[in-house]
# Entry
Amino acid sequence: MSPPEEPAPDGGAEPAPHSGGLSDRDRAVLALERRTWPGPGAKERAVREQLGITPTRYYQLLNALLDDPRALAHDPVTVNRLRRVRDARRERR
# Structure
């Protein structure tokens, strides 16, 4: 029997986290961020096709992941790089 699905904040169903770790969707978000993109629009298209969410929702989830210690433990290189980018943008404002 598979684990029960929990309602996600965006109204969809999200698989339950694996043994206290990140959900499949959270890992997929980080995996998309590890990739390089050939041009404008390619990443947004991949977000819609692979994750089935809007780019706006994707960036909301990503921003929350940057503050999640489980995400840092899962992919420290990507999370730390994105934290630096986020902090630099905040300083410019």
Summary: Confidence is low (pLDDT under 50) at residues 1-17. The two ends are 50 Å apart (CA to CA). The beta strands are 5-7, 13-15. Residues 76-92 form the longest helix (17 residues).
